[in-house]
Amino acid sequence: MSDTATVDPVEGQSTPPSIWDSPSLAKFKDGGEVAHDKLAQSYIELEKMMGSRVALPGPNATSEDIQRYYAKTRPATKDEYTFVMPGIDDLEPAEVDKWKTRFHEKGFNQDQVDGVLSLLTDDIIETQKRNNTQTLQQQTETQVALKTEWGANYEANQGMILAGLREMGGEDLVETMKPILDYDTNGAKYLYQVAQYLRSSDLLKNDGGGNFGMKTVEEAQVEKHAIYNDPNNPLYRSMKSQQSLADRQPAIDRILQLNTIIANANRRLGGS
Questions:
Q1: Which domain holds residue 238?
Q2: Is residue 41 part of a domain?
Q3: Which residues contact 112 (CB under 8 A, 6 or more apart)?
Q4: Phi, psi of 142 (to 5 degrees)
Q5: How far is CA 119 from the centre of its chain?
Q6: What is the DSSP letter of 16?
Q7: Considering the domain boundaries, does residue 43 fall inside one?
Q8: Which among 71, 257, 27 is positioned nearest to 161, based on CA atoms?
Q9: In a domain, 117, yes or no
Q10: Is 12 left (phi over 0), alpha (psi -120 to 50) or beta?
Q11: N or C: where does the chain have the smaller number of CB atoms within 10 Å of the terminal CB?
Q12: What total of structural domains would you count in the chain?
């Protein structure tokens, strides 16, 4: 059936097309007659749909208008949010609760929360990777610098520093100062100088004789003998070197350290 006007053959006048001739209303006609029950049911469904829709708050919306809008779009309570950040294992419950509260106050729905958390997760992981790379590089640079300067005494010097820290302040002080030893070349050298001073100081009265109990007198004597006589000792070749004093210096330094342990222990034992 056409939507165009028709001409009355009797009167010769145009008549407007019926609204029911519109293609969009054809489903409400049954055998040429309007199906009023179908039309009524469609109207009821339309009202339900319109009633469930929530208009976006405009610039003049009141706080009540905004809360009504949020009530339709966000979870009923903040605890209904799903909070997932894959790869982030150290989330504090108090921090998570704070974020959920903020999301709820701002009317975020779950999709919006998921989007924010995804961005945060990616950013945190990328920052952690960058920091880990920088930390590893700094630690490597510190180790190389100290090994270059301390040579074969590197591990012994580190042990002396840690032992001194442990003697002065226990494991808490070790944990506090360990980052300096690992990542700060100048700081590690300073700690070594402090440890050298303290191991021969009368401030520390341990039986090990000024080496913070890390090596007994017997152990010091055994190591000293090995430096002079055992080809498998890492400092033996240095001690026997005929090239220059610089080549022999690592062995000489370690012998001096061992002599200090032995001498201080003997002095204290003799004075007791």
A1: 151-271
A2: no
A3: 103
A4: -65, -45
A5: 14
A6: P
A7: no
A8: 257
A9: no
A10: left
A11: C
A12: 1
